[in-house]
Specification:
The complex is a heterodimer of chains A (337) and B (213).
Chain A: H1 3-11, H2 28-33, H3 37-40, H4 44-58, E1 63-64, H5 71-75, E2 79-83, E3 86-92, H6 115-129, E4 135-140, H7 142-150, H8 152-161, H9 163-187, E5 191-195, H10 206-226, E6 233-235, H11 247-250, E7 254-257, H12 263-269, E8 274-279, H13 283-286, H14 289-303, E9 309-313, H15 323-333
Parallel strand pairs in A: 1-4, 4-5, 5-6, 6-7, 7-8, 8-9
Antiparallel strand pairs in A: 2-3
Helix pairs in contact in A: 4-6, 6-9, 7-8, 7-9, 8-9, 9-10, 14-15
Chain B: H1 7-15, H2 18-30, H3 35-53, H4 61-78, E1 91-96, H5 104-115, E2 119-122, H6 129-139, E3 143-147, H7 154-166, E4 173-177, H8 186-189, E5 193-194, H9 198-209
Parallel strand pairs in B: 1-2, 1-3, 3-4, 4-5
Helix pairs in contact in B: 1-2, 1-3, 1-4, 2-4, 3-4, 4-5, 5-9, 6-7
Classes of the chains: A alpha/beta (337), B alpha/beta (213).
Chain lengths: 337, 213
Amino acid sequence: MNSLERVKAAIAFAPADHTPAVPQLFGHAAALAGVALEDYIRNGELLARCQIEAYRHYGHDMVFAFMDFSVETEALGSVLQYRANQYPDVVSYVLTPDSDVSALAVPDPTSAGRMPELLRAASILRREIGKEMPVAGCVLGPMTLATQLLGIETALYLAADDPGRFEKILDFAAEVAVRYGIAQIEAGAHLPIVFDPAASPAVVPPQFFRELLLPRLKRVFAAYRAAGALANWLNIAGPTAPILPWYPEAGVDIANFDYYVDPAEAQKLLPATCLDGNMKSLSFVEARPEEITAAAARLVTAFAGRGGFLLSSGCEIPLEAKPENIAALVAAARGGD
Amino acid sequence: MINPEMNKLVETLLEGDHAAALAEARRLRTAGMASERIVTEGLEAAMQRLDDKCTVESFNLLEIMLAGRAVSAVVNELYPEGMPPERGRDTFVIATLEGDIHDLGKNVTKMVLIGKGYRVVDLGKDCPVENLVNAVEREHAHAVLVSGLITPVIPQVRRVRPALAARGLGGVRVVAGGAALKQATAGELNVDYVAETAFDGARYLDSLARGAV
């Protein structure tokens, strides 16, 4: 079985030769290759080369055309600060609470900001290894993009003080996610992962998710399915147990779960949805390889009777992770070889 | 038990209705109630109710921020020059350390602590450890709180306790919180306590103030 077949089998709850290893390796691929992060996130070809190199090094089962969480907001006019070996931060947000979001146009992914570079990365990855290896793209979910357009404190206060205006921003953010995600699929990504950390119950109450975010996520995922996405993947970290049961309604096929959620609980809440998780991301920096092996083996065992599982971290693996810890995760997925 | 005179203030604070909370605080002041009573019997009671409600499972930033904004509005009204040191029970220094510019968790924690009647000196984000130690010395702080969303800030966190000790401030407790830091233990971070939420950290500081730790 190749990686693509293995991941497809997991999504379909079908038998596979072993559990797919899908560590969330983004900027770590730059660190592994000795490439400066600020170059990696601005050059699609370099990003693709580093992802391929990381795959050849670790032998895991997915590559990622992922830059950072500021690509969309930069393409829309926010100003970023790039710093050595860190993801960029927004220093000037494109929207204020008084802005009229209708003055913003959905960016053209072929020309706006770094979006074309990400498309280039997806295209190279698909062309070079995509016959056997799933290529994942990355878009921000509506809530997280709203926070990236306004700043998170401003966004949350606006959600409470002027819900009508905030919902317009969410609608706009969902349109951005649809267009950018479809462009990634057309460029070669098998699927765009929707990252929406600001939709976590640690940030907004579950009812907020259900009433304001679920309908928009549903629209986004329906559009991806129609565009031919291999599957719909929603990645929200943190204590997501209260919102997981709504994922199937959103059209989610792969649900990320973090270390806050017990694997047995996640299985109970999503009996027919492929799950990915839930190793502590910090453990890849701090733990010893044998600890990673033991934790990963426990997870593989917990899902052995069910299938529908991608062995992963619950959140991004830090840039400074120890390579031997990632290798331990991959070996554990293969049954310890 | 909430003083019935404070019911409306507590209710508006818990609803996060900052305009209504401010109006009610002004009404209480005009009726002759001392600022200190409004803090101890109104604000602190509201924060206690919020604390009881916010277990780890149901803690969310939106509700805390709205209540915190209402509390801040009332405190600014009562003490436009800032909470006087003699009024605040203890003083804490809070910061997001150098290398991390994510300060929402810090801001929320600050609001919770102010609501509980503490004096909080906020050093902002991307703060060098040296500045933190200087502030502890200058402000006679009882504890230091550091927040971190990203893992590369961890080496800075580990430096705080030795830096305090080198200045003869080894008795000052260090509390860590935030998405990256709370994945680690206190021992791993070389701090005294790792807070799961802002309220969890505040409870630890309450116990310090009571001399229970």
